Amino acid sequence: HDISLADPLDSKQLYFPNLLILNSPAGRTRLAKLIENEPTNLSLLVASARYQTLAGEFDAAIDSLERLRRIRLEDLTVAAALAEAFVESDRLEDAGRLVDSIPPYHAMEPWLLTRMRGEIALHRELWNDALKYFGTVLEVDPANAPAQMGMAMAYEKLGDKDNHVEALRRSSILAKIRVNLGSVQSDAEAACLDLATQCRAIDMEAAAKVFEKHAARIKSLSLIHI
Question: What angle do CA 14, 16, 17 make, to 5 degrees?
Fold first, then answer.
């Protein structure tokens, strides 16, 4: 993006890292091949376990991550992925005990771990803590749909009607973006423009300008070929 060589896929990965479909069969196959070559690579093993979580294979994911955690107790990436598996499988008490056992929040921890802190705060009815953690995630990843929905839930519990309605509006737009993201391709001018409009509706101005540039480039290329 800095040197103006990004295509729409690059832009989707930059601005919507948590809205792209992660648990695809092709992705899992590629990951498995990488692990064959690097069977002790921690990042790959954590990614594989997260694929299992996303696929609903919770017991397998938890078993894998608990084994990794026994040998990498201080690694917060492993802890974050294990907390996610607990939360997604509705084992919130286990998630809470795990997060209680690690150091308190700090700004350099994985975003996923910060979001899990928010989920646990919701479970414990610590609504302001939930807002703090989800808000922190949204500062660095404004398209993080689970964090945005977490904000909506916390505002509702606090009786903050205006912020609750606004959080729901943003969640609705993120849901629309997720559905339409696949149509944003290197030859799809209208889809890029539509995405730019949706980005602007949730104050993602930089992303809106990028996708407008993609649309303009697509249009210019189509005129050349006429």
Answer: 75
d(CA 150, CA 171): 10
Per-residue pLDDT at 78: 98
Over residues 14-30, mean pLDDT: 83
CA geometry: angle 136, 49, 84, nearest 5 deg: 35
pLDDT of residue 24: 74
* Residue 184, C-beta contacts closer than 8 angstroms, at least 6 positions apart: 8, 12, 191, 192, 195, 211
* Identity at 189, one-letter amino acid code: E
Sign of the four-CA dihedral 44, 50, 55, 59:
positive
Q: CB burial class (10 A; 0-12, 13-18, 19+) of residue 87?
A: buried
CA separation for the pair 136, 221 (Å, rounded): 40
Question: Residue 22: its pLDDT value, please?
Answer: 65
Q: What pLDDT is recorded for position 4?
A: 87
Helix H or strand E encompassing 223: helix 205-224
Residue the block writes with tokens 């904000």: 151
Kindly report the number of other CB atoms within 10 A of residue 105's CB atom: 14
Q: Kindly report, residue by residue over 105-133, the tens digit of the pLDDT.
A: 999 999 999 999 999 999 999 999 999 99
